[in-house]
């Protein structure tokens, strides 16, 4: 297994980069079980007899072949595509729900095929896991081999350099008073020095008057290749292990309110990795002082577009001074290793509900979810304890109210110009007493009767800030509080949704990613080549040959040999007279 | 007249000039065809006298060697094809107008001119032409001129018609240095992929012609070719290795794009990778080109098969830029187009 080059004559003692057996550099085709070169014992009487070991070995060899790697790569590319066509649960859970609603017939099939979880599906995982096993099986032996090659001497000069494609030959006269062999040695000394200064590793092979130097450079190419492939494994492992230590949580904070980093206190949702100790979160707090946003003025380009989002927050670690910070898109803040991101924002109108007796049964700033770029928003108010039947209100909020031709309301602009709030009111059972987790943004109206709205005798309620309206049938009142009365800068409070992430593996992923980029760069752009200069006494003259052999892709090898011949010829020619080098081969 | 109006005007001027450049290069190819046919006819006449129709192996090798030397000749020593030179001049002038259009758009917007689909097209095609003109200094790739100009006219004209949007303020997630770096490098990578793609296409044509030519050796029949100018171009092998060189530059830049994108996503969206539509396609393209590089090193895949991978890769790049940006749902909804 020492022959690893197609140039037999050249590779007698040459150990090139070890490559999978169907790499272009390799000799011999190894497609058949049992045909693994060295193991003659697997054959008896010409008939391959394969034991389990033989088959395993053959299987491993197939798995770590270039062709398998290639096929797996192409499969990986194809397998990744469906995830961009079908909504994915991880990235877009609502999309999946919607898809299900529009394609109820196809849904079960897609579900079985794991098309909504492509990137964690069995088939996708199988492809990349096989690919990485192949990768490791390929890289490990190559690393060992390269380690040896790094410490080996450049290989013996081939007997017939003229068989190489990139070859040049010239004849130099021997100066007075020197013998041909001496001059040959002198010429090769010169070449050796030149190659060495061109950062080649050199080795002299002088034999019986024929002097030659063998030189090699670009070991870094293979090093880069191995680092690149190895770093890919590093990326995968960091991502895989890191996932177990990662947690992600979401929270919503209204102006004037705060959040404490603790499960059960602050988060609206929290997804910890397997190894996260949820009891050990640092209990820092974040409170939202003010949320700023700018809207492009009507009549200017991008009219109505919102931007320059800034959440002005006060953060505090237990027992420490509070600190004012600003969270912006692209500029998360870091708290105890957590990164805190600004993910969304909206309006949280403050709503007060009074019952028949005039007692306040609900008073809160309720976050409304934006439904459109102009911030038409939807929200839900649930009043379980009214003293009578439970109440549920489904509201729409329009920061700048306008009427559509149909008579329906809409919002014309995202900022608070003429805020309006409307409610459909339901009465009955909210369904929150039986312990089911219910979204604060949705109202299940199944067990309820509409008492104000489209399907009721009373039309929906409509309020401006500061206004109070009656619930139908004297059930009480609803007030849309004007926050400026409480000293706030705007009549309606705003809220932000924050996402809090802790991913201690991210720096490792980045490290390996950058390492792979560096490896890739050297692997692709450092030429690896061998060069030989040989001087043979030939009567009264000395025949000087130059030859080069590219190890891997090397478009400039021909030029490199020509350059060497020219530089060497010149240096030599400065001393005695000699003929200019001529290309021996035209290709 | 606003800067943006000036930009649009310059852009259409550039498109017009590129169209002329396309015509010049096409005429050049046609004339090379005539040249090749004339040479073939002359050859055939002498051969008929000698009793043979096909080329000999030596002829074919000599033709290849001559084409390789021509490919690598310094600009002053190149074939003086009149229309090719005209094409280069027109492409260069078109390029200058194109630069003007890009810069004035940037001034009008007060930021880098690559933050929506229209501007991606504007800058991306600019980089294609820039890379092409730069490479021309080293290699005589004028035979790609018709292709490149044609591609630019289609992409730029299409973008100006279908993707044009007025300058609007950047949305918040785009306010980042990564917009400058990530998007620019992605466009640059695409430019190299475009060139590799063009070469791979010519490589496929060339290798089919070469197979026919070799099959005709020693027979009476003259080899069939529908595109005789191919005879003046470098051999399929030379084209392939050139395509490979551009593809690996593109690949390294694309790898950087991928990493930079992940860093940006980690700042903007709170995770570095989430298989968002655009992320998926960036990954798919990356994997296809990794496959291409492997194919080039795998026995049985070098040559025609690997060339197809380069073609698939660039098709995916274009698909990603047009269809994915426009029609696929995802976080990267920055095309600026109404959905
Ligand atoms: C995640 C999967 C893989 C990716 C993304 C990948 C990517 C690449 C890239 C980009 C190159 C070119 C850079 C260089 O020469 O270093 C390369 C080269 C190479 N890869 Fe991989 N590779 C993968 C898996 C494998 C596997 C499984 C094998 C072994 C069977 C392998 C063997 C090689 C070899 C031998 C080269 C050198 C090619 C040459 O001589 O030009 N790779 N790979």
UniProtKB/TrEMBL annotation, chain A:
The terms describing its cellular component in GO are:
membrane
The entry's localization annotation reads: Membrane
Annotated Pfam families: ResB
Q: Where is the composition biased (Low complexity)?
A: 26-41
Q: Which residue ranges does the record annotate as region Disordered?
A: 1-41
Bilayer topology reads: Multi-pass membrane protein
Transmembrane stretches in the record are: 69-86, 122-141, 226-247, 506-526
| Ranges where the ResB-like domain occurs | 66-557
- Alphabetically list the UniProt keywords: Cytochrome c-type biogenesis, Membrane, Transmembrane, Transmembrane helix
Swiss-Prot/TrEMBL GO biological process terms: cytochrome complex assembly
Q: Chief location of this protein?
A: membrane
Q: Sorted alphabetically, which InterPro entries does this protein's record hold?
A: Cyt_c_bgen_Ccs1/CcsB/ResB (IPR023494), ResB-like_domain (IPR007816)
Q: What is this protein called?
A: ResB family protein
Q: Tell me the classification of the organism that encodes this protein.
A: Bacteria, Bacillati, Actinomycetota, Actinomycetes, Micrococcales
UniProtKB/TrEMBL annotation, chain B:
Q: Which coarse location class describes where this protein primarily resides?
A: membrane
Keyword vocabulary terms for this entry: Cytochrome c-type biogenesis, Membrane, Transmembrane, Transmembrane helix
What GO CC annotations are associated with the protein?
plasma membrane
Q: Localized where?
A: Membrane
Q: GO molecular function terms here?
A: heme binding
Glycoprotein keyword on record:
no
Q: Which domain of life is it from?
A: Bacteria
Q: Which residues cross the membrane?
A: 6-27, 82-100, 120-137, 144-165, 177-202, 242-265, 280-295, 307-328
The cross-references to PANTHER family, in alphabetical order and at most eight, read:
CYTOCHROME B_B6 PROTEIN-RELATED, HEME EXPORTER PROTEIN C
Protein name per the record: ABC-type transport system
């Amino acid at each position: 297994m020492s022959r690893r080059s197609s140039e037999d004559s050249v590779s007698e003692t040459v150990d090139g980069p070890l490559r999978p057996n169907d790499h272009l550099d390799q000799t011999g085709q190894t497609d058949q079980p049992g045909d693994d070169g060295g193991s003659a014992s697997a054959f008896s009487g010409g008939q391959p007899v394969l034991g389990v070991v033989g088959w395993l070995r053959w299987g491993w060899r197939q798995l770590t072949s270039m062709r398998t790697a290639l096929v797996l790569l192409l499969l990986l590319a194809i397998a990744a595509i469906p995830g961009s066509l079908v909504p994915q649960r991880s990235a877009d859970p609502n999309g999946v729900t919607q898809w299900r609603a529009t394609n109820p017939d196809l849904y079960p099939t897609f579900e079985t095929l794991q098309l909504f979880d492509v990137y964690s599906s069995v088939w996708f995982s199988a492809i990349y896991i096989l690919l990485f096993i192949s990768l490791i099986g390929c890289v490990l032996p190559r690393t060992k081999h390269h380690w040896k090659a790094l410490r080996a001497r450049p290989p013996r000069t081939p007997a017939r350099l003229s068989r190489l494609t990139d070859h040049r030959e010239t004849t130099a006269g021997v100066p007075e008073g020197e013998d041909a062999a001496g001059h040959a040695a002198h010429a090769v000394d010169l070449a050796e020095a030149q190659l060495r200064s061109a950062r080649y590793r050199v080795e002299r092979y002088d034999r019986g008057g024929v002097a030659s130097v063998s030189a090699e450079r670009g070991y870094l190419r293979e090093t880069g290749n191995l680092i690149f492939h190895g770093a890919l494994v590093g990326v995968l492992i960091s991502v895989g292990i890191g996932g177990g230590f990662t947690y992600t949580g979401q929270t919503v904070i209204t102006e004037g309110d705060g959040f404490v980093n603790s499960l059960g206190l602050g988060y609206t949702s929290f997804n910890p990795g397997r190894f996260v100790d949820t009891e050990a979160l640092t209990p820092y707090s974040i409170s939202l002082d003010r949320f700023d946003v700018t809207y492009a003025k009507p009549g200017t380009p991008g009219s109505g577009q919102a931007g320059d989002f800034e959440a002005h927050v006060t953060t505090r670690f237990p027992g420490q001074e509070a600190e004012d910070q600003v969270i912006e898109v692209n500029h998360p803040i870091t708290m105890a290793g957590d990164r805190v991101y600004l993910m969304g924002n909206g309006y949280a109108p403050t709503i007060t509900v009074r019952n028949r007796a005039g007692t306040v049964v609900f008073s809160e700033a309720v976050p409304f979810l934006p439904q459109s770029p102009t911030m038409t928003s939807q929200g839900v108010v649930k009043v379980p304890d009214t003293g009578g039947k439970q109440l549920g209100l489904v509201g729409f909020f329009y920061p700048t109210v306008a009427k559509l031709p149909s008579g329906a309301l809409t919002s014309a602009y995202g900022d608070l110009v003429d805020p309006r709030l409307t409610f459909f009111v339901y009465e009955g059972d909210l369904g929150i007493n039986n312990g089911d987790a219910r979204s604060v943004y949705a109202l299940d109206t199944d067990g309820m009767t509409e008492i104000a709205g489209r399907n009721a005798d009373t039309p929906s309620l409509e309020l401006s800030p500061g206004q109070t309206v009656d619930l139908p049938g004297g059930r009480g009142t609803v007030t849309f509080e004007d926050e400026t009365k409480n000293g706030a800068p705007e009549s309606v409070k705003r809220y932000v949704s924050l996402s809090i992430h802790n991913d201690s593996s991210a720096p490792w992923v980045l490290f390996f990613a950058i390492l792979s980029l560096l490896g890739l760069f050297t692997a692709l752009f450092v030429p690896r080549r061998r060069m030989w200069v040989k001087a043979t006494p030939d009567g009264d003259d000395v025949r000087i040959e130059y030859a080069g052999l590219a190890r891997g892709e090397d478009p400039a090898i021909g030029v490199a040999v020509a350059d060497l011949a020219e530089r060497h010829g010149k240096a030599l020619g400065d001393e005695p007279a000699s003929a200019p080098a001529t290309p021996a081969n035209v290709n | 007249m606003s800067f943006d109006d000036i930009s649009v005007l310059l852009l259409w001027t550039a498109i017009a000039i590129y169209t002329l450049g396309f015509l010049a290069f096409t005429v050049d190819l046609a004339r090379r065809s005539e040249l090749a046919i004339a040479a073939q006819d002359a050859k055939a006449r002498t051969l008929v006298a000698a009793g043979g129709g096909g080329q000999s192996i030596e002829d074919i090798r000599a033709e290849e060697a001559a084409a390789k030397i021509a490919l690598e000749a310094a600009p002053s020593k190149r074939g003086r094809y009149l229309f090719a030179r005209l094409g280069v001049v027109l492409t260069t002038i078109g390029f200058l107008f194109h630069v003007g259009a890009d810069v004035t758009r940037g001034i009008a917007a007060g930021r880098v001119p690559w933050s929506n689909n229209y501007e991606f097209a504007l800058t991306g095609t600019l980089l294609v032409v820039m890379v092409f003109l730069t490479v021309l200094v080293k290699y005589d790739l004028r035979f790609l001129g018709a292709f490149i100009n044609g591609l630019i006219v289609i992409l730029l004209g299409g973008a100006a018609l279908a993707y044009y949007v007025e300058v609007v303020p950047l949305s918040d997630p785009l306010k980042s240095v990564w917009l400058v770096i990530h998007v620019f490098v992605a466009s640059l990578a695409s430019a190299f992929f475009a060139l590799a793609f063009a070469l791979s296409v010519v490589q496929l044509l060339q290798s089919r012609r070469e197979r026919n030519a070799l099959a005709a050796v020693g027979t009476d029949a003259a080899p069939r070719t529908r595109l005789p100018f191919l005879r003046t171009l470098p051999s399929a092998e030379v084209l392939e290795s050139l395509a490979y060189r551009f593809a690996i530059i593109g690949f390294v830049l694309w790898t950087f794009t991928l990493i930079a994108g992940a860093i940006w996503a980690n700042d903007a969206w709170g995770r570095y990778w989430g298989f968002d539509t655009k992320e998926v396609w960036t990954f798919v393209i990356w994997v296809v080109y990794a496959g291409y590089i492997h194919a080039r090193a795998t026995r049985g895949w070098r040559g025609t098969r690997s060339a197809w991978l380069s073609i698939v890769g660039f098709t995916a790049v274009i698909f990603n830029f047009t269809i994915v940006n426009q029609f696929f749902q995802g976080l990267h909804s920055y095309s600026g187009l109404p959905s």
